[in-house]
Design a protein that fits this description.
alpha/beta; Aldehyde Dehydrogenase, Chain A, domain 1; Aldehyde Dehydrogenase, Chain A, domain 2; 6-stranded mixed β-sheet; binds nicotinamide-adenine-dinucleotide
């Protein structure tokens, strides 16, 4: 970490709290400390956010908020290299990922919600009345109030700003808690907010863990009006119970066990290349990554061999986020190796330098496991993909849809009719055809079943972060 990790509460930076060690995942060595916020600081952050709701921020027009979001985007742009360095230091991800995806997307998040909120119109209806004079109804979108934003370690800035930007766009105030493993870019974001002169208390940042720490204290806090969370499905369940006590609305982006379907009529080279990307981007630590591939039997061998050969050639990938996560991924691989076949990877790469102390796992391709095997059914969240054959379209759909998760899926086919038949029949929130992770920020984003509640993206986020109110005026 280049600069100390600090909270940002009521417009002031603060480093109070019990130190929590940060570990560089590339080398597995200490990389600084995070101050875990005491409960008193979490209370203060919520109070600051509540006070700010009654301050000048309350009267800012959508156009003024839009200009502020653009100013924040400008601020990230001006410090682009610092953000890239902090993202890489925290996560160990390759520089090209951080500089082409994470930081540009964070900027785009602010710009797209700035534009959307500035151009948003309210609905109105004319109603007839018995006296013939009528009435005018119009909808006003009000902020929800103080929103808790809790985010994970895999795309720390991208996912944090994906919620903070629309929350601010609709006039809310925010208390954000990033993952305790990756605090760096959130600290820089707080500095950018301060430099942009966002009114004190509108954006607050507290660091710390989840259970029995800042995360839990925030979700249980009576001063929090809504919770936007991205993370594991199990954590989502815990947060939902906390929110239920006071009926606070939640927006959840949770885990996945995403599948790809490869039909025999697909461009096989494109399907292999696309699946290499979808399985191994950020070493599989993206919620949208493919962990199951079902391949139509006539092309199964060619596809599996192509994928395994590609996986063996991959280089320049990053480590797992922590020793604990690396061990979890290796446990899945070991069990799969005992029960099935490993076509590529399956171990820990050797570098013969300092990286051998880091948390690395080879890109791994498995096959031959039954559908109820933990490596096929549970989210691994690492560079591990299982390939299995299928014979009919119906069977393939059944295999994909049998998962308890339903975030994303990809269909590889050269048959346009099949694409339009199969994609909408998948029990997921996001389906791609002949591509992966192609995102337009205005489209709905989220999962079904254990993969989430609600949708983010474009108007979907603006709707979540606001309360529509009807005004009826008798004319
Ligand atoms: P996690 O659930 O362990 O932690 C996420 C955040 O929640 C962290 O900030 C953590 O401190 C906090 N937290 C943990 N326990 C809490 C509690 N009891 N109360 C309040 N806060 C708590 O998840 P993670 O390991 O950081 O991230 C990986 C998971 O996130 C994977 O399951 C992945 O699929 C999911 N994810 C989903 C999406 C999506 O868009 N659907 C995107 C990225 C990651």
């Amino acid at each position: 970490m280049s600069s100390p990790v600090r909270h940002y509460v009521g417009g002031r930076f603060d480093a109070s709290g019990v130190p929590f060690p940060l570990i560089d995942p590339v080398f597995g060595r200490p990389a600084g400390e995070l101050p875990a916020a005491p409960r008193e600081l979490v209370d203060r952050a919520v109070r600051a956010a509540r006070d700010a709701l009654r301050g000048p921020w309350a009267s800012w027009s959508p156009a003024e908020r839009s200009r502020m979001l653009h100013r924040i985007a400008d601020g990230i742009e001006q410090r682009f290299e610092e953000f890239v360095a902090a993202e890489c230091a925290d996560t160990g991800k390759p520089r090209d990922l951080a500089s082409t995806i994470d930081i540009p997307r964070a900027i785009a998040n602010f710009r797209s919600y700035a534009d959307l909120t500035a151009g948003r119109s309210e609905q109105s209806w004319h109603t007839t009345t018995p006296d013939g004079r009528g009435a005018l109804n119009y909808t006003v979108h009000k902020p929800l109030g103080v929103v808790a934003v809790i985010s994970p370690w895999n795309l720390p800035l991208l996912l944090l700003t994906w919620k903070v930007a629309p929350a601010l766009a609709m006039g809310n105030t925010v208390v954000a808690k990033p993952s305790e493993l990756t605090p760096g870019t959130a600290c820089l974001l707080a500095e950018v907010m301060a430099e942009a002169e966002l009114p004190a208390g509108v954006f607050n940042l507290v660091h710390g863990g989840g259970a029995d720490a800042a995360g839990q204290w925030l979700t249980e806090h009576p001063g929090i009006d809504a919770i936007a969370f991205t993370g594991e499905s199990r954590t989502g369940g815990t947060i939902m119970r906390a929110a239920a006590a006071r009926l606070a609305p939640v927006s959840f982006e949770l885990g996945g066990k995403n599948a790809a379907l490869v039909f025999a009529d697909a461009d096989l080279e494109q399907a292999v290349a696309g699946t290499l990307r979808s399985a191994f981007t950020h070493s599989g630590q993206v919620c949208l990554c493919t962990e199951r591939v079902y391949v139509e039997r006539p092309v199964f061998d060619a596809f599996a061999q192509g994928l395994a050969a590609g996986a063996k050639e991959l280089s320049g990938y990053g480590p797992m986020i922590s020793a604990a996560h690396r061990d979890k991924v290796l446990r899945y691989i070991d069990r799969a190796a005992a029960d099935g076949d490993v076509l590529a990877g399956g171990g820990v790469p050797r570098f013969s330098d300092g990286r051998d102390g880091g948390f690395w796992v080879e890109p791994t391709v498995l096959t031959g496991l039954p559908e109820d095997h933990p490596a096929v059914r549970e989210e691994i969240f690492g560079p591990v993909v299982h390939v299995a054959p299928f014979d009919t379209e119906e069977e393939a759909l059944g295999l994909v849809n049998a998962s308890p998760y339903g975030l994303a899926a990809t269909v590889w086919t050269g048959d346009v009719s099949r694409a339009h038949r199969v994609a909408p029949a998948l029990d997921v929130g996001i389906a791609w055809v002949n591509t992966w992770n192609l995102r337009d920020l205005r489209t709905p984003f989220g999962g079904v079943k254990a993969s989430g509640i609600g949708r983010e993206g474009g108007d979907h986020s603006l709707d979540f972060f606001s309360e529509p109110m009807n005004v009826c005026v008798k004319l």
